[in-house]
Amino acid sequence: ETLEGAIRYLPVVGAFVGAAGAAIYLLVRAVLPAGVAVALSMAATVIITGALHEDGLADAADGLGGGLSRERVLAIMKDPHVGVFGATSLMLALLLKFNLLLAVPTSRLPAMLIAAHALSRLAAVGVLMTLPYVRDEERSRAKPLVTATSGASLVVAVVTGLAPLALVGKPALTGAGCVVAVGLLWRAWLRHRLGGYTGDCLGAAQQLTEIAFYVGADASAFPH
Q: What is the rounded CA–CA span in Å between residue 127 and residue 129?
């Protein structure tokens, strides 16, 4: 039941994380420049989640970037040290988020944060539900999630993941399209390289699709 709830409420948790980041942004923006507000908002979301998804992105980048065989990729992902691929991917992800959010007007940014954090976690659920788990450890936290999930939980996850898009308006359509595209590409690459997913791959899915949403929504709302 606990594992089923983890999937059912993952987009809801994302929406709350985004809302917390939005609140920090608005509070700071009232007295400080937009760049400072965006940076502290990002810091707040990282602290709230314990950098769980950022850690997954770094580990996945190290493994997929440095490992040639499936076994080597999985071994590198388990290594607690951060390598060049991991550090570079994390730096690029943070820079992209900062600049993409900085381009959003203050009035629109809270909705963007809430929608992006909810939808990106739904994208991670999509990867989890459509690929097998590739590690053998019995005590892994990610392995039992699929077998513990009912259709009702998936419906809740989909509805709560998509509902915040209404806050963003028309730019959400382009943003969601980018999320789908990046999510499918990430899933295809995982299937090709690993034959499935790990917990780190889910964290990476969240980070990549969050950025994809900002890219699509920004491009639609503020064309150059």
A: 6
Per-residue pLDDT, averaged over 20-37, amounts to: 98
Q: HSE of 73 in the Cβ direction (CA atoms, 13 Å)? A: 20
End-to-end alpha carbon distance in the chain: 48
Contact 26, 112 (CB under 8 A): no
The single-letter DSSP state of residue 144 is: G
User: Residue 15: which of 115, 103, 124, 93 has the closest Cα?
Assistant: 115
Q: Which of 88, 66, 86, 85 is nearest to 75 (CA)?
A: 66
pTM equals 0.92
- Is the pLDDT confidence value at 149 over 70? no
- Binned at pLDDT 50, 70 and 90, residue 144 comes out as low
